[in-house]
Design the sequence.
């Protein structure tokens, strides 16, 4: 006959310890979504990329065409680069576009900085209304803005020309310069400014030593965006251009109407190079500032 083991009384520590419950289920990490999980997306994406960048590649290659047609290859040559450099009307239109873009970029960027800093002092409702009014050019059709601007400058006695183009481009570029600055300012939070106020910094010292350096990435992004938008604009420029003040997009359109010349490809290639250079410099500056603040 088997002897039964004596039952041992539980110690106070064991009695006080909670009884182990059921183990929680082990959660497996969620599987990352892959492109193959969305059938049909890859071909559409490839088609979109090809449709977007292949014409740019063809335009760049045909800028070195020796023939008189922009679409018929006759051999490699730098002939049309010389033709463009010697075209006085084209060079004048490029200078006009650069003047308009530089003035519009500087004025719109300064206005965007001042607006972004002041709108945060308003109440929530007032801030939303002010931002909506200033951002209206983003949603209003540009043809409407062009007609309204032309009528307004006629009403105040101003004729189409360089000054009218500068004023119109400046007002049109303000929302584009404002968006990166406002986003950067919202991402900073209020800790920097509260600390500066506790240390006794004045408003000007706070702006010069804290706010402005921290806003530099947003300011650069907004300025580049405003510059590109102004340089690329056609509708407003077409309505407000005049003899001797013809922006480059309007001049290019007149060239295309006369016939597809390789000069158009050369100008497009030069503008593409300019955009790449500006974007690269902006990116390198942002990376350098990020490393300095890291």
Sequence:
């Amino acid at each position: 006959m088997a002897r039964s083991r004596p039952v041992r009384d539980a110690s106070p520590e064991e009695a006080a310890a909670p009884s182990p419950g059921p183990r929680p289920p082990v959660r497996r990490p969620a599987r990352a979504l892959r492109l193959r999980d969305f059938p049909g997306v890859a071909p559409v994406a490839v088609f979109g990329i090809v449709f977007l960048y292949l014409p740019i590649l063809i335009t760049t290659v045909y800028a070195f065409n020796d023939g008189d047609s922009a679409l018929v290859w006759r051999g490699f040559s730098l002939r049309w680069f010389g033709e463009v450099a010697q075209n006085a009307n084209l060079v004048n239109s490029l200078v006009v576009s650069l003047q308009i873009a530089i003035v519009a970029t500087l004025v719109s960027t300064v206005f965007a900085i001042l607006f972004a800093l002041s709108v945060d002092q308003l109440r929530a409702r007032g801030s939303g209304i002010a931002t909506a009014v200033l951002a209206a050019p983003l949603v209003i059709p540009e043809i409407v803005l062009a007609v309204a601007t032309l009528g307004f400058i006629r009403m105040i006695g101003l004729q189409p020309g360089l000054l009218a183009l500068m004023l119109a481009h400046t007002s049109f570029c303000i929302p584009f310069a404002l968006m990166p600055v406002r986003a950067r300012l919202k991402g900073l939070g209020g800790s920097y400014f509260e600390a500066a106020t506790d240390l006794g910094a004045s408003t000007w010292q706070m702006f010069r030593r804290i706010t402005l350096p921290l806003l530099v990435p947003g300011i650069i992004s907004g300025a580049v965006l405003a510059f590109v938008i102004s340089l690329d604009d056609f509708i407003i420029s077409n309505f407000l251009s005049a003899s001797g003040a013809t922006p480059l997009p309007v001049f290019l359109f007149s060239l295309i109407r006369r016939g597809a010349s390789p000069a158009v490809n050369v100008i497009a290639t030069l503008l593409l190079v300019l955009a790449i250079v500006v974007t690269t410099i902006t990116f390198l500056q942002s990376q350098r500032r990020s490393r300095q603040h890291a």
User: Anything to note?
Assistant: The mean pLDDT is 79. The domain at 88-259 is CATH 1.10.3720.10 (MetI-like fold).
